[in-house]
Amino acid sequence: MVSGQKKKVDWKVFIPPIFLILAFCVWIMVDPKGAGVALNKAYNLVTISLGWFFEWYAVVLFLLFIYFVFGPYSKKRLGDGDPEYKTTTWWGMMFTTNAGVGVLFWATMESFWTFQAGPFGSEPMSADAARWAVAYPMYHWGPMSWGMYTVFGLAFAYMFWVKKINVARPSIACESLIGSKLANGWLGKVIDIFYMFGLIGGVATALGANTPVVSELFSKVLNIPRTLTLDTVLLISWAVFIAAVVYTGLNKGIKALSNFRIVFSFVVIGIILVFGPTQFILDTTTDSIGHLLQNFVRMSFNLDPHTPSTFPQDWTIFYWAWYLTFLIPTGIYFARISKGRTVREFAIATVAASTIGSWIFFGVFSSQMLDTFNKGIVPIADILTKSGAAKAAVEIWSTLPFSPVILVMLTILAYISMATLVNSSIYTISMGSMKELKGEEEPPGWIRVFWALALGALIVAITSLNQFKAVQTLTVVGALPMIPVTLMVLLSFMKTIKKDWK
C-alpha cells in the first residue's frame, strides 16, 4: 500500500446507497408480500418498456468492438514498454474469469428454462427446443456480452496507460466530455452515486442467485434441511471470513483461493467429460455452436412482440441489464491486466478467451442437464416448481459420475467461489466510496468490513422472499442509472481518442 495522505471517504457517494439498502431491508421485513409484488411490477415495466433500448445498446457496443479490431485504432498501443504479463498468462487470466459455481448454475438452469420455454415458437421440451437450450445461453455468455465489456475495458485501459490517470471513478472517465469542473463537482457526484446504485444491484443479483445454490449443496452433502437460517449463516461466514482476510491484508491468501477455485472447476469438468456422456456432450456442444452462429443476428434483435412469450425480456434483456451494471468494474479489471497491448490484441483476447471459457462450461453442464432429462433420471420440472432452481440444479449434479465426491468438490468450490465473489464485490464498492485512490492504494479495512455486513443484510433480505424474479429485479432496476453513466463514459472515450489518436 502506498503511504501518503490519509484516504478519505466520499460521504456524498457513500451515504445514499446505505439509505437505499436500509430502506429496502426494512420494506421487506415490514411487508414481504407487497415487496414481492412491487418488485415483479418493476421488473416487467423496465424489461417490456426498455427492452428495445437494451438490445440496441448491446448491438452498438458489439459493432464498436468490431470497429476496434479492424478500424484505424487497432494498432495503437495501450501504454509504453513491454506487456506486463506473458501472452499465455494474460489469455489465461481472461479465460478463467468464468470459473466458479455461478457459471455452473446458469449453465445448468438457464438451459433448462430455455428448453422449457421453447424460443421462437419451438415446442417446449422438444428436439427443436433442445437446440435452443444450449445455443441461447451460449449467446448470452458469448461474443456479444464480452464485446460490451471490451469497449469499456479499452476506455479504462486508455485512461490508465495512455493518459496516465490512475483513478478508477466513472466521473473522472467522463472529464473530457463534461469538463473538469463538472466532473469534480456536483455532476461527478451524481455519476458516481448512480454507479454505486447500479453496481450494488448487479452484485446483489450475483450473490442472491448463488447463495441458495451453496446452501442447497451444504444441505445435500450434510443431509440437513435448507432453511433461511442456513442461508444467513453462510452469508455471515463469507462476510466475516473475507472481511478478516482483507482487513489483515492477506492478498496472497485471496490469490490462492482464486487459483484453487479455477483448478477445482476444471477438474470437475474433466471428470464429467471423461466419465460422463462424452459423445453426447461433444455432439450437443458442436451442434449448439453452429445453431448459434446461424441465428446470431435473429437472436440479437428478438423481442417477440407478436406472441404472449416474454422469453427475450426474461433472459436477453435481463442479461444485458445485468452486464450493464458490471461494464465499468469488469472493464477496469481487463484494463488493469492489459498494459502494453495493442487495441486489436486487447479486443480479440477479451472476447475470444472469455467466450471460450464460457462455452466450455455451458457445453459440458448444459449438455449433461439435457442427458439427465432425456434419460428421465431426475424430475427437473417438478423439483423446480416445488423447491426452486437451486434445488433442481443440485439434484441434476447428483447424477454426475462419482457424485458423492463431485458434490463435496462442488460444495467446496461453491463456498470458495462465493468468498472470492464477495471479496471482489466488497473491494469494488469500497473503492467507489473513496474520494481518491491511486497506485496500489486500497480502501481502509473498516469500510470493507462495513460493506461486507451491508451486502450480507441485503442478500438475506432478498433471499427471504424466495423469488428468483425478485433477484433479477435488483439488476434490472439497478441498470437504469447505469445507462447515462456508461453512455457518458463511452462518449468521453470516443471524443478523447478522436482528438489524441487522430
Q: What do you see in this structure?
A:
With 502 residues, this protein is mostly helical. It has a single domain, classed as Amino acid/polyamine transporter I, CATH 1.20.1740. The chain is 78% helix and 0% strand. The chain has 21 helices and no strands. The protein has helices at residues 11-30, 32-70, 87-95, 101-117, 127-140, 143-162, 170-173, 175-178, 180-183, 186-222, 228-247, 251-275, 278-294, 296-300, 311-336, 343-374, 380-387, 389-397, 403-432, 445-464, 468-500. Helix 4 crosses helix 16 (343-374) and helix 10 (186-222) packs across helix 11. The longest helix is centred in the first third of the chain and has 39 residues, at 32-70. The model is unreliable at 1-5 (pLDDT under 50).
Outline: globular
The average pLDDT is 85
Unreliable spans? 1-5
The residue fraction in helices comes out at over 70%
The tally of helices reads 21
CATH topological fold name: Amino acid/polyamine transporter I
- Count of DSSP E strands? 0
Secondary-structure map:
Elements: H1 11-30, H2 32-70, H3 87-95, H4 101-117, H5 127-140, H6 143-162, H7 170-173, H8 175-178, H9 180-183, H10 186-222, H11 228-247, H12 251-275, H13 278-294, H14 296-300, H15 311-336, H16 343-374, H17 380-387, H18 389-397, H19 403-432, H20 445-464, H21 468-500
